[in-house]
Design a protein that fits this description.
This protein is an alpha/beta fold. The protein has two domains: 2-248, 3-Layer(aba) Sandwich (Rossmann fold), CATH 3.40.50; 298-377. The protein is 42% helix and 20% strand. The chain is built from twelve helices and twelve strands. The strands form two sheets. The chain has a five-stranded mixed barrel with strand order 5-11-10-6-12, surrounded by four helices. The radius of gyration is 26 Å and the shape is elongated. It starts with a strand and ends with a helix.
Length: 380
């Protein structure tokens, strides 16, 4: 799954327009995300709104990462340009994010103590490939002109900069001279991603104003929705490529050279024997013939199944509608078993067969249901 976050509602809507089969996902703390897919059957996306400022963006980003365990994170929206040569509607992909409000105030002025986060190499390479091939442009609105795409640092602070000559503007220009754009949220997003095993993260911004005192005029000309649409188009293409890269997950030559591959090699000497040789193992493993013991209690197995279903729901392996229907069938099965009659067991089996159909796309859960049915029938 890919998490995409925005700060403004118009940015959110620009991304949401690329999603299909959208449904609400409610976090226990009240945050509402929406889940959908890109291009119909494309990668799954969790879309969220962080609001203005680096502090709320860090909190919501951390919440999204904990909730969805994404393979990548994208922050998408609009920003102000810091250089005259950058056009309205241009797309800026951050190579670095500066949290520029760190500093110390001394008699001779403010001395910068910034934090900076750099985009990871692989994500940067994928983004530049999309730019070179222009394949991302197919996601633009039909009547939209193709904007320029620029790669460079983005400065993220806590104020809206709308002047080219103010003390703040001069300080930013002098201290962060290579920054292409300025905004208010991506430092919080970058910080949260950094604290989560260096989660691949990209910031994609469309230029909606020049941060020079003309913001009211450019907003009046609807540059915010235009810039948001351009950023969303590039971000959607990047999300699809990141998801494909994550699914394929090739082992690099460097990792192979260091023996860091997914291949497992066991060597047995003398009278020793290799019992099992495997890479990643999920679920239970039995070596040899299992002992002939009494089958697990169906009631206990149902309780375990309910727990596994809840975990699958949290991991987005099961959607909300399927989860609700599956919970209902488990309840019917449990109540029927509690009757301790042949008729009750038959009703439980029927409910579990319906449940197996509901969970057919999740192989592990469907197999668990089959095991419960077998236990009820007394099949070892």
């Amino acid at each position: 799954m890919i998490v995409i976050l925005t700060a403004l509602d118009l940015e959110y809507q620009a991304v949401r327009g690329h999603l299909t089969n959208v449904r609400v996902h409610r976090h226990t703390a009240g945050t509402r995300f929406e889940l959908g897919r890109l291009a119909g059957d494309g990668p799954r996306v969790a879309l969220g709104l962080v609001g203005k400022g680096n502090h709320p963006s860090a909190v919501i980003t951390e919440r999204a990462i904990a909730e969805f365990s994404p393979s990548a994170l994208l922050f998408v929206g609009v920003a102000g340009a810091l250089w005259p040569g950058i056009g309205l509607g241009d797309v800026v992909v951050a190579t670095h994010v500066y949290a520029y409000h760190g500093g110390t105030s001394e008699d001779d002025g403010l001395k910068a103590r910034p934090r900076a986060w750099e985009i990871d190499h692989e994500t940067d390479q994928i983004a530049r490939h999309l730019y070179r091939t222009q394949s991302w442009t197919r996601h633009l609105p039909a009547d939209a002109a193709v904007p320029a795409v620029r790669f460079g640092p983005i400065a993220a602070g806590e104020v809206v900069q709308d002047s080219a000559i103010s003390a703040h503007a001069r300080w930013v220009r002098q201290t962060y001279n290579d920054a292409l754009a300025i905004e208010m949220e991506s430092a919080g997003v970058a910080q949260a991603a950094h604290h989560n095993r260096s989660l691949p993260m990209a910031v994609v911004r469309g230029i909606s104003d020049r941060a020079d005192g003309t913001k009211t005029a450019t907003d009046g000309l609807s540059w915010q929705p235009k810039a948001a649409a351009n950023a969303a188009a590039f971000a959607v293409a990047l999300a699809q490529e990141l998801a494909t890269e994550h699914d394929n997950h090739p082992v690099s030559t460097a990792r192979e050279a260091k023996g860091m591959t997914d291949r497992v090699k066991n060597v047995a000497r003398d009278n020793a024997r290799v019992g099992v040789q495997a890479g990643h193992i999920h679920g239970n493993v039995t070596i040899g013939h299992p002992p002939q013991t009494q089958a697990a209690d169906p009631v206990t197995q149902l309780a375990e199944l309910r727990d596994r279903l809840a975990r699958a729901r949290k991991a987005q392996e099961v959607d909300e509608e399927t989860f609700t229907a599956a919970e209902a069938e488990i309840t019917v099965a449990a109540e029927s078993l509690s009757e301790s009659t042949e008729q009750g067991r038959s009703k439980a089996v029927i409910a579990l067969k319906k449940l197996r159909g509901l969970l057919a796309e999740v192989a592990e859960l469907a197999a668990h249901v089959s095991a419960v049915i077998a236990a009820i029938r007394g099949v070892l």
